[in-house]
Amino acid sequence: MGHHRAAALKLENVRKVYRSGDAEIVAVDQASLEVGPAEIVALVGPSGSGKTTLLSISGGLLSPSEGRVVVAGDDISDYDPKRLTKFRRENVGFVFQSVNLVPFLTARENLLVVADFSRRDKKKSKARADQLLAELGLEKRAANLPAQLSGGERQRVAVGRAFMNEPDLVLIDEPTSALDTKLGEQVMELIVTEVRARATAAVIVTHDTRMTHYADRTLTIVDGILDDATIL
Amino acid sequence: MKLALLELRRRPWRFAPAVVALVLLTGLLLTLGGLLDGLYNGFTGALRAQPGALLTYATDAKLSMVRSRIDAATTAQVERVPGVEQVGGLGTVLLGATVPGQTTEASVALFGYQLAPHGVPAPPEKTGQVYADTSLRAYGVTEGQTLLLGPKRYPVSVVGWVSDTDFLLQGGLWGTVDTWREVLGSARPDQVLAHGTYQVLTISTAAGANLARVAAAIDAATGGKTRTVTRSFAVDSLPGIAQQRSTFNAIIDTTFFVAALVVALFFILLTIERVGMYAVFKAVGASSGQLFGHVVLQAVVIAVVSFVVGALLAVAVSRVIPPQVPLQLSAGRAREVAAGLVIMSTLGSAVSLRRVVRIDPATAIS
């Protein structure tokens, strides 16, 4: 009997409600989703549709008001903030919309900072950072600060950082929003290449429908309601 | 931890406002502390150097050495008290001294002594010879010189140096009892003292003796004509000493508080500025404790660097101020300021803890 890897991400009837005085704002409503171990899913939707909230819940940045969130077999729905921190440190990689590199760290150090927080073996971490930088074509830029890198190079460093902790799931928020079409495509190709090379699952939030063809599946979310029909 | 140090190394200008403020505060703390130490030592050196654990004054002198008189009969009564091991007469006169080649008179306290104080040799062989306190070097006094004391210009020759023996901020001169008696007689003819009369008795007690009991026994034996106190009590009873210490200590404590406030405000502002960066760090798995450690480490490094620069500043200040200003920089005071600064900086940076804890990692992605 073959060994089946658990789904990288499983959301079951997830609901996220914010309260503002007496008013109740439903950011995500009864969302269910399953992302396979090496699957790339694009999540599209207009501004305020709840896609970032869904991404945050998937990565343990937010806890759902209702429903279950299972990442790589671990049900994180009821984790307290401390356990969620550990979970993110070990299981999830993030690529943020505004890249968010640490301005006073070199490209290599921006990767190593993740390992520093998790107190991983320094020698192994350095080897992994060097390997990632080489794969991303940044080996000659390893000692450069973010200000000395181009927009595309910074984005590549951010991608490398997301893979430093060997995550089960990579969550990518609007990776092309600050880039022109050509550069955006290059970055998406790079992300997809890295994700596929490691057989890692990824959820990419984007409003740019030109980029959805890089994903195995595209889901739309409108007013907090997830439509899991595949868009081709 | 490495992250905190890298930021300090690569963006030192970012921390410059806090460092500049702390350097100035360190310089101020060391200078204030140095002045307090200088004043205290300059006021009390002669008493602190006394070999006896007890000092006996005439009761009506109210612990004023200058007013106190103890005659030979009273001294004999004191010597017979059980527990008293050695009794030495001590007298002083405060006056101006003309220093050869100098236009400014030096203020001196000439002592005549029987029992050698700590750091002072046995009384010189001849009348008219004195050991001078090193503080008098600031007035141009040198060894071998003849100083002219008081209005009658009584000559005394400097035959050696002693240190930390000043009294009421007047440079200490230590000679025989006869020298003191003659100088006192020449300067204050109305205060000529009979042979065997001293101002104060310095009393060594037998090993293990109870000082309070011996003091009470002495005063009982003299029929209440004397008041015997411990050396430290006599020091603290010098006029203005307690007020001086409390005033300076209040200023020093306030300055430490200001240092904590500077660090607190600086790191609050820095933390507000870093909210985005800390949110990203939290999102990728940094704990609030790790980030708070980052803030505290930076505060401690800033305090240490500021202390070093501030100490150099204080040393520079001490070199340019007139030598008559009683500023004494000491390693003990420097250690105290360094430790205080590190503690206050740590406490100041701790104010950022609440803000660090409240940073929501979800904001990194929203």
What does this structure look like?
The complex is a heterodimer of chains A (232) and B (366). Chain A is an alpha/beta fold and 232 residues long. Chain A contains 6 helices and 10 strands, in the order βββαββαβαααβαβββ. Chain B is α+β, with helices and mostly antiparallel strands and 366 residues long. Chain B is 50% helix and 17% strand. Chain B contains 11 helices and 9 strands. Chain B has a 6-stranded mixed barrel. In chain B, α1 (2-10) crosses α9 (288-320), α2 crosses α10 and α7 runs parallel beside α10 (331-350). Chain B is elongated, with a radius of gyration of 28 Å. The two termini of chain B are 27 Å apart. The interface between A and B is medium-sized, with 29 and 22 residues.
User: How would a crystallographer describe the biggest sheet of chain B?
Assistant: 6 strands, mixed, barrel
Mean pLDDT of chain B: 93
Helix and strand content put the structural class of chain B at alpha+beta
Helix content of chain A: 25-40%
Task: Give the strand tally of chain B.
Answer: 9
Distance between the termini of chain B: 27 Å
Assembly state (oligomeric):
heterodimer
> What share of residues are in beta strands of chain B?
15-25%
Q: Number of helix segments of chain B?
A: 11
Termini separation of chain A: 33 Å
Strand content of chain A: 25-35%
Q: How are the strands of the biggest sheet of chain B laid out side by side?
A: 2-3-7-4-6-5
Query: Measured on Cα atoms, how large is the radius of gyration of chain A?
Result: 17 Å
Contiguous uncertain segments of 5+ residues of chain A: none
Sequence of strands across the biggest β-sheet of chain A: 6-7-8-3-9-10
As residue ranges, the low-confidence spans of chain B are: none
